From TrEMBL:
CDD domains: SDR_c (cd05233). GO terms for molecular function: oxidoreductase activity. Gene3D superfamilies: NAD(P)-binding Rossmann-like Domain. Belongs to the short-chain dehydrogenases/reductases (SDR) family. It comes from the Bacteria. It comes from Streptomyces amakusaensis. The keyword Disulfide bond does not apply. This is SDR family NAD(P)-dependent oxidoreductase. The keyword Iron does not apply. Keywords: Oxidoreductase.
C-alpha cells in the first residue's frame, strides 16, 4: 500500500485528505499538536481498514519531524508528503503596521522552515518511491495582496518558492503547491472572525482536486484545487 505523511492531520483539510486517502487504501502517518484530537481522528481513519500511525507533536521540532519519517519507514516507505500544518502569525489577522514580529517569525518557522526541514528528513524515502510526491498547502494570499493577510501570505509565498526550487532540484519527484481556496476551517475562522456568517466550502469539497492531481500526476507546479475540479 502507498504511504502518506500528513501534517496538521487532526482536523480541517488535513483530516479530510487523510480520510479520502484511507478510503483508497493508503497507509497514513498523521501529525498534529493536540494528542487527544489527533488520536480520535486516527481511530476514525482506521475504520477504513488501513494502518494509521498518529504522532503528536510540533513540526517546528526536529525530533518530531524525524519521528514522522521513521513512522513512515516503519509502514514500508513514503510516497506522499503533505505539509499542511500552518499558523497565522496573528489571530485575528492584522495590518502590517500592527503585525507582531514574533508572530511573523512563528509563521515563517512553522509554514516555511519546518516544511523544508520535513522535506529534508523525508527525501531519502521519497527518492526511493516510484511515485514520490510532495504537496505543500499554499494560499491565494501567497499571490495576491489582501489587506491584513500580509504576514501569513508572505510565509505562503516563501513556501511556494521553496516548492518551485525543490521541483527543479528533484526532477524525479512531483512537487505541487496547492491553493485549496477559502474553506470552512478553524484556521479561517481565527483569521477573519468577522466573516463567520459567510458560507464557505467544506474541506471535503476540495479534496477531489487533490485526488485528481494524484491520479493524473501533472508536472510539478502551483495549482488551485477548485480550478482542478472545474476542468472535469
Amino acid at each position: 500500500m502507498p504511504v502518506a505523511v500528513i501534517t496538521g492531520g487532526s482536523k480541517g483539510l488535513g483530516r479530510a485528505l487523510a480520510a479520502a486517502l484511507a478510503g483508497r487504501g493508503w497507509d497514513l502517518v498523521v501529525s498534529a499538536r493536540t494528542a487527544e484530537v489527533l488520536e480520535r481522528t486516527a481511530e476514525g481513519l482506521r475504520g477504513h481498514g488501513t494502518r494509521v500511525v498518529a504522532v503528536a507533536g510540533d513540526v517546528t521540532d526536529a525530533g518530531h519531524r524525524a519521528a514522522l519519517v521513521a513512522a513512515a519507514d516503519g509502514l514500508g516507505g513514503l510516497d506522499l508528503l503533505v505539509s499542511n500544518a500552518s499558523v497565522l502569525g496573528a489571530e485575528p489577522l492584522v495590518r502590517l503596521d500592527s503585525q507582531p514580529l514574533a508572530g511573523l517569525r512563528a509563521a515563517l518557522e512553522t509554514n516555511v522552515v519546518a516544511a523544508l526541514g520535513l522535506v529534508q528528513e523525508a527525501l531519502p524515502l521519497l527518492r526511493g518511491s516510484r511515485a514520490g510526491t510532495v504537496i505543500v498547502i499554499s494560499s491565494e494570499a501567497a499571490a495576491e495582496a489582501y489587506e491584513t493577510w500580509g504576514g501569513y501570505g508572505a510565509s505562503k509565498a516563501a513556501l511556494d518558492q521553496l516548492a518551485a526550487v525543490l521541483a527543479v532540484e528533484e526532477p524525479g519527484l512531483r512537487v505541487w503547491a496547492v491553493d485549496p481556496g477559502d474553506m470552512d476551517t478553524d484556521l479561517y475562522e481565527a483569521a477573519v472572525p468577522a466573516d463567520d456568517d459567510e458560507v464557505r466550502p467544506t474541506p471535503e469539497s476540495v479534496v477531489p482536486g487533490f485526488l485528481r492531481l494524484l491520479d493524473r500526476r501533472p508536472v510539478s507546479g502551483r495549482y488551485a484545487a477548485p480550478a482542478l475540479l472545474d476542468r472535469g
